Amino acid sequence: MRVTKAQAQANREHIVETASVLFRERGFDGVGVADLMAAAGFTHGGFYKHFGSKADLMSEASANSLARSLVGAEMVDVQGFIDAYVSKEHRDGRGSGCTMAALCGDAARQSDEVKTAFADGIERTLQTLGDKYPTGPDAASGEGRVKMIDMLARAVGAIILSRACPADSALADEILAVCHAEMTASLLMSADSAEVAG
To answer: DNA-binding residues per UniProt (predicted)?
Structure first.
C-alpha cells in the first residue's frame, strides 16, 4: 500500500520523537538504527527512506528536543527555570528531560552538524532566559546574557554530576540542593541590585 506524503511526514516525525527520547536515555552510541526503528514501530529498512544516515537523525532529533525544551523556558522566569531544572524530577526523567544535560558530552564527540544543532539550541535558550534575567538600568549591555550563561552552565553541570552518582546516593541529592540554593541566592542578589539601581 502506497504511503501518502502526509503519512510519510507523520512517520518521520514519529521516528524523530522516538529517537529524541531514546538518545536522551541511552546516548547517541547506545541506540542502534534497528532498535530505534523497532521502538518507533517500523522496520529497519525504512530508516533510509527518511534519513541519509544516523548522524542526520541525531542532528534532527537534537534540534527537535532542544526546541521543545525552549518552549518550557519561554513559559517561566529565571527562578522558575532553576526550580524546574535543578530538581530530582528532572534528574530522574532523563528521557523527557533536557537534551543539553543528557547529551552535551556525547555531542562533543559528534559531527559539526550535531554540534551546530546544540549550539543553536543553547543560543536560543540563552536569548530567551537572558532577556528575563534581572539587571538594573545601569547594567552593561549583555549583562543578563553573561549571567544566564553562568546560570545555564551551573544548571546543566548540576544535573550531569547528580546523574553520575547512584540514584539513591546522598551526594546526588546534595549536589542538586547546594546548586539550587546557590543559584537562587545569586539570582536574588542580582534582583536586589537591580531594584536598588532602579
So the answer is: 32-51
Read off the CATH number of the domain in which 127 is found.
1.10.357.10
HSE toward the beta carbon, residue 55, CA cutoff 13 A: 9
Q: Give the pLDDT confidence of 62-98 residue by residue, as tens digits.
A: 999 999 888 877 889 999 999 999 999 999 999 999 9
User: What are the distances in angstroms from CA 172 to CA 55, 91, 179?
Assistant: 32, 9, 11
Instruction: Give the number of domains in the chain.
Output: 1
36 in Cβ contact with 28 (< 8 Å): no
CB atoms within 10 A of CB 132: 16
Q: Which domain holds residue 179?
A: 54-197
Residues in contact with 47: Cβ distance below 8 Å, sequence separation at least 6, in sequence order: 15, 33, 36, 37, 57
Could you tell me the pTM of the whole model?
0.88
